[in-house]
Design brief:
- The protein is an alpha/beta fold.
- It has two domains: 241 residues, Response regulator (Rossmann fold), CATH 3.40.50; 129 residues, 3-Layer(aba) Sandwich (Rossmann fold).
- The protein contains twelve helices and 16 strands.
- Strands 2-1-3-4-6 form a five-stranded parallel sheet, sandwiched between helices.
- The longest helix has 20 residues.
- It starts with 31 loop residues before the first strand and ends in a 5-residue tail after the last strand.
Length: 407
Amino acid sequence: MSLNRREFLGATAALTTAGALLPSATLAADSIKLGSILDTSGIFDAYGKPMDQALRLAIGEINAGGGLLGREVDVLSYDTQSDMALYSQYAQKLTRQDQVDVVHGGILSASREAIRQTMRKSKTLYFYNVQYEGGVCDRNIFVTGVTPSQQVEVLVPYAMKKSGPKVHILAADYNYGQITARWIQKFVEENGGEVVATDFFPLDVSDFGSTITKIQQTAPDLVVAPLVGGAHLSFFRQWAAAGMKDKIALASTTMGVGNEHKVLTPEEGNGIMVAYNYSQELDTPENRAFKEKWEAAYGDTSAIHELAVSTYQGIMLWAEGVKKAGTVDRMPVIEALETGISIVGPAGNIAIDPQTHHATLDVHVMEVENQGMTVMETFNQVAPVDTQQVCNLQENPDDNTQYEIQI
């Protein structure tokens, strides 16, 4: 995700985590070293703290089961304090001084790119466990978060079936919003619908009065809003205040991924349709067990969100790669992961797509209800078709590009 996409976190400071973070283990001479770089303080900590907790929960679970290859996994973690400059500094420290075997980390797209090039040059395996705009093509990285097409492919047909064929798109005016708007239009048209208008908004726009008036004039059946940032959160409040929430259906690809739905009141948020890989309301044995382990470790499950679960699942996928490879050496682990390794995690089955190193995963269409996300329909094993259009690491293993996907 881009930097601007995270600016609203200052408005979600109430989303704190309960319980102290588990301490890193004392390094043993023969331990496996896992590096972590996350914002566990500063304005992005509502994302970074639960991600850090999930990482430590996964490593604790692995070590309790005997470690990997008979060796303990130790965490070397650095808090960037929501300062982008520290990402490069700590990435270099992890590779040059700490000499870790793998790095999991990064939240913003800019932070990912700072880490990614350092990891590639140092030949250190890297996992990015975050929802983002898609298009990264690099054999040294594995991505476990959802991409735009994985959400939109299932969200748009569901929302149109519930509301109608005429769609008005409201999007943030930068790469994520622009790319996602194109995917929305593609799937609206493929499902027999029509986009009656598409409006883009700078990230500092907070007054949507004229926009709501325009929507009343275009009279769509559905508004799809990949809006981003604290200022844009105002739209959902103003939409409800204008009495529109019960008149025209509303869907979003961003609202709720980091527990933003808990910032809105039920009167403002109820009924908004979203699609993600995870919801706390998933009623599966794996999710129940995950929440029980989280509660035992931290005392409260309220902070769990999509990016925390993606982090947990990313650690477990890496562990499966190590087991299959029989070593922590980078290339054997990459080759093992490229066989299409999968796990069943809190959000369902997740597998590595060998072509792109992105995740094929379950996507759950949900509706916001009383500051929760109720699962309405599950789509199993949705492929990252956006990145598949531009990236083929089987044919071009030396690629090192973040493509801007054209639709």
